[in-house]
Amino acid sequence: MTAMLSLSDVTLIHGDGEDTVTALDKVNMEVEAGELVAVVGPSGAGKSSLLAVCGALISPTSGTIRLNDLDLSAQSPRRLTAIRRERIGFVFQSGNLIPSLTSLDQVRLPLTFGKVANPRDPRELLAEVGMSHKADRRPHQLSGGERQRVGIARALVTRPQVLLVDEPTAALDRQRSQDVVALLAREAHEHGVATVMVTHDHEVLHHCDRVLEMIDGRLLPAESNASV
Ligand SMILES: Nc1ncnc2c1ncn2[C@@H]1O[C@H](COP(=O)(O)OP(=O)(O)OP(=O)(O)O)[C@@H](O)[C@H]1O
């Protein structure tokens, strides 16, 4: 079985000359379709850098990143933009919604940037994340958890192969954190999305299929899901 997302010996060095930081140090990672993988680790360990290279936002200094059978390093910048739009979904800490748009229009937005082969229905998706009753609300009329749900729906509307999630529970209370990560797990499992979630929140790890730990740019299996 081919991994949906695969990193081989990926190194990312920020800066140049003597002033360099090795953010990722020969990272190897494989994420299957339908799998939710958590990445934990201390501040500065390289977690955001990992999401950035997986999302084709930054090219690694060396190593290979494959999305299904596609080698990202072999793609032009223009093609990478199309790959990000068509194949990758991003979910950020606070939902990153556009203040003037309703929930439904936030979810429709990725479909307005160009043709999408097989989009999900925005209304159905909003219902699936439990937000159809607030389809006409704007972000300031939503709670943090609700904003996060809309952000997740927006990231999934193009049917991405890979979903990259950065600290989705940072602004949420305990129960809402559980609900949001349970939603990510359900979407990953039911729709075959290879999902990588960076988190500091150890209480949500039981929803994840695997937990990896990043330390000083190196990625290791976490010792046990219960203890990380
Ligand atoms: N654009 C950049 N230029 C130079 N150094 C950078 C840059 N981005 C990140 N770094 C450095 O790379 C290392 C990894 O940073 P990264 O943001 O990936 O860590 P992180 O694990 O996401 O941290 P946090 O949990 O605090 O968000 C850090 O030492 C950071 O200072």
TrEMBL record:
Residues 5-228 form the ABC transporter domain. InterPro entries: AAA+_ATPase, ABC_transporter-like_ATP-bd, ABC_transporter-like_CS, ABC_transpr_LolD-like, MacB-like_ATP-bd, P-loop_NTPase. CDD domains: ABC_MJ0796_LolCDE_FtsE. Keywords: ATP-binding, Nucleotide-binding, Transport. The keyword Nucleotide-binding applies. One of its GO terms (molecular function) is ATP binding. SMART domains: AAA (SM00382). Gene3D superfamilies: P-loop containing nucleotide triphosphate hydrolases (3.40.50.300). The keyword Ribonucleoprotein does not apply. This is ABC transporter ATP-binding protein.
